[in-house]
What does this fold into?
Amino acid sequence: MSKYIFNNDAEILEFLEQLREKSIQIWAEGEKIRYRSKNGQLAPEILGTLKMAKGQILDFLRMVEKNVIPLTAIQTAYVVGQTAGCELGNVNAHYYIEYTIESLNVERLEQMINLVISKNDVLRLIVTHEGKASFLDNVPYYSVPIYSLYDENVREQKRLERSHHRYNYYKWPMFHFCVGKTSGKTSVLHIDFDCIILDAWSAKLLLDEIFSLYYGEDVKFPRISFMNYMRLKADKKDLKAEKYWKEKIKNMPNFPMLDYQKKFTEVQNIRFDRIEYDFSFAETQRLYEKIRNYHFTPAAVISTIFMKTLAQYSENPAFTINVTLFNRQLLHEDVNEILGEFTNNAVISYQGKADLLDAIRVTQEQMWRLVQYREFEGSNILKMLSSGRAGKAIMPVVFTCMLDGNVSEVEKRRYSFKEEYAISQTPQVVLDHHVRDDLGYLKVSWDYIIDVFDKQYITDIFGTYVNNIKKFMEKN
It folds into this structure.
């Protein structure tokens, strides 16, 4: 008779992964557990565990199979991007953020994190060795570790440790929370996660949920899981979109040829740094008023100024960049409350037009096309562009936009959790531009590979970019 020697699914998963590391594979065949090992035998203690926990292991294997769904195209790209054979690869898609807060109740925060984990299946996602996503039903209570933050060197060390952490896709969890406690009232909350589970919008939603619950507010959890959403999601073959992109790429210029310090194939140590700028509330209001007066969208304006700035430094003034899209099909009324990875990507081109307003109009037209054909997989666009050049970084400059287009003078939804630092990294990306206004003002950030750009060079380009945005604010 089976005994309950494992307390949850994560413990069983860990046990099976340890066996796999010893080249032992386990699978279910009816009511029997089958195994394969190098010499066809198992050590007595392993055999004993399999016999004692037979029922638990069989139930676990059935659950994993029942909860399996295909990875999305972008999730697959993240998995592939971790391999050393890819240009600008051998790195995971990862996001890290720090907050400071006064008088943090860690126990309460921990309770709210666990509530959110229980309500969102994507926070229990693992990747199977067959390359699919599955979701654990029963995970252990997540404990938030606390460390003593007695000086800034300790904080910096924790930042170095977590900001580029690499998760094992076959283990749970793929996120991490920890708290640095000082001798005073201020605490530092470190959060990081693998982007295979959350896109940027979902990450923002996750933190809003946790912080809202921490302050005793109600949160509307989705009545549909990410797993069920993905099963409902239809991958329609859009012939119009395919025709549009096939025609579009015929005359599509290459990515920006900036002063890269190394060839992409020579970059081995991929580590990102961030440079950023916060516009004031008044500046942001003035910018958005100007944008409305021209009947443009903020995304079109800011992306065009970004591209126009790069053109000032690029060998090729006409080029193409990668654009991140967040695509949720309206399959359920709670679709906007689901946490998950909904990223798609597409491309927009800059033709080196001298007049900024004309260039913005061209960009805006391209962006409307992106919306029109948003169901078309961006990975297919990159495949068309790659022309069989497997593993090449085809479009390594990315524009990631998270703009509401409206700001309030009071910081939104963050309460007394003050964002202090953030950085991201993505496989096959050399420069990722993030723009957001959810903090109550416009914030622009560039994450770039340290080994590829001279720091003064990239700082100069960024300074020009910020000044170009300010010039647009004052434009008559």
Q: What stands out?
A: The mean pLDDT is 92. The chain has 14 helices and 16 strands.
